[in-house]
Design brief:
The structure is a single chain. By secondary structure, the chain is an alpha+beta fold. The chain has a domain of 101 residues: CO dehydrogenase flavoprotein, C-terminal domain (Enolase-like, domain 1), CATH 3.30.390. It is 28% helix and 21% strand. A five-stranded antiparallel sheet has the order 4-5-8-6-7. Strands 9-10-11-12 form a four-stranded antiparallel sheet, sandwiched between helices. Strands 1-3-2 form a three-stranded parallel sheet, covered by helices on one side. Strand 2, helix 2 and strand 3 form a beta-alpha-beta unit. Helix 5 runs antiparallel to helix 8 and helix 10 runs antiparallel to helix 11. The protein binds flavin-adenine dinucleotide and iron/sulfur cluster. Flavin-adenine dinucleotide binds next to strand 2, helix 6, helix 7 and strand 8. Keywords: Oxidoreductase. GO terms for molecular function: FAD binding; oxidoreductase activity.
């Protein structure tokens, strides 16, 4: 039986130094993903867990029209934040649609961004073929059965879904990730933070070993942007998305002047539907245009038996959500 070392530093620099210096060390925040994978499923191996829960990275502040969210702020704390309630209702909807109250009281914002896939083959040590867990071993999911898997950004090497709800709302709003590591600080837009599987499904984001998410910056939209997060799932609560949409429109004189659309439940990364946004901008807020946007958003999916249904479901959800935020009947 291997021995696991647990450290709980009080200073950011100490935490970063501990993980950077040891390839067998990893950060521990709320533990709702990390402890499952390590202790229950046994699909990740670490010698040392560095608990970041006591670092001064908790809470929110507003500076120059941007909400800064500390990485160890919990999902429940952020959902109850006055600025989020008033200015970012779509973020609150996404937060409260995820997991359960108990989990959201433990789960942190940094951990939510970095939650691992729910692909059942990844989480089952008895399955040999998983390129994400064992690079070069193949992908059991593409030969199925598959259902809670991705259809965008996917390929024969991996169809693992990024299952976060929060990240879908955050990519739609152009959130930026604050990172600190042994070489200093940097900022990366959330739309550029994740890496699609390609030939290396084991590489999921741009973080180097030892780098920590310290905060997430969310620009506060100007008044008049109507936004909504809608999640479709098999059960009414405590379930991951089959498909979800974060949509926001600004409409002036009947024409769409600002369009934001991101999708969950379909992408290997939280999916920003750029082409659909381009199509909508400048057009009238009519259902025919919403249908055209939905068509473009789901162009060129990679499906396997068991995931084809997501194409039509996502398109219908996009139309419904855009109709709602445009003020038309959903
Ligand atoms: P941890 O488990 O502590 O860490 C997760 C990973 O992130 C680890 O690799 C850790 O090293 C790394 N990490 C954590 N913080 C940092 C940081 N600041 N910098 C660098 N690395 C860091 N999520 C949804 O969005 N929607 C759902 O419907 C949903 N349902 C769930 C249902 C269940 C039963 C469970 C167990 C989880 C569910 N989740 C859902 C996922 C949940 O939101 C995540 O597990 C949680 O947000 C992870 O946060 P954490 O603080 O517990 O992270
Ligand atoms: Fe592994 Fe990705 Fe295939 Fe799932 S989809 S079995 S995570 S390679």
């Amino acid at each position: 039986m291997s021995v696991l070392e647990y450290r709980r530093p009080e200073q950011l620099a100490e935490a970063i130094a501990l993980v950077s210096a040891d390839p067998g060390a990893a950060y521990l925040a709320g533990g709702t993903t990390q402890l499952d994978l390590l202790l229950k499923d046994g699909v990740v191996e670490y010698r040392t867990l560095v608990d970041i829960g006591r670092l001064p990275l908790r809470g929110t502040s507003v500076v120059d029209g941007v909400l800064r969210v500390g990485a160890v702020t919990t999902m429940e704390e952020l959902a109850a934040d006055a600025v989020v309630i008033e200015r970012l209702p779509m973020v609150r909807e996404a937060l409260l649609s995820g997991a359960s109250t108990q989990l959201r009281n433990m789960a942190t914002i940094g951990g939510n961004l970095l939650q691992r896939t729910r692909c059942r083959y990844f989480r089952d040590r008895a399955v040999a073929a998983c390129n994400k867990r064992a690079p070069g071993s193949g992908c059991a999911a593409v030969r199925g059965p598959a259902r809670m898997h991705a259809i965008l950004g996917a390929g024969e090497n991996c169809i693992a879904l990024h299952a976060s709800d929060l990240c879908v709302a955050l990519v739609a709003l152009d959130a930026v990730v604050g990172i600190e590591g042994p070489d200093g600080q940097r900022s990366v837009p959330l739309t550029e933070f994740y890496v699609m599987p390609g030939e290396r499904p084991d590489v999921e984001n741009v973080l180097a070993h030892g780098e920590m998410i310290t905060h997430v910056d969310v620009p506060l939209p100007a008044a008049g942007l109507r936004a909504q997060y809608v999640k479709v799932r098999d059960w009414a609560s405590y379930e991951f998305a089959l498909v979800s949409a974060a949509a926001a429109l600004r409409i002036e004189g009947g024409a769409i002047t600002e369009a934001r659309l991101a999708l969950g439940g379909v992408g290997t990364v939280p999916w920003r539907a750029w082409a659909a946004e381009d199509l909508l901008r400048g057009r009238q807020a009519y259902e025919a245009n919403f249908r055209a946007a939905a068509e473009v958003a789901l162009r060129d999916p990679y499906t396997v038996p068991g995931t084809e249904f997501k194409v039509g479901l996502a398109q219908r959800l996009i139309v419904r959500t855009l109709k709602y935020v445009s003020g038309a009947q959903a």
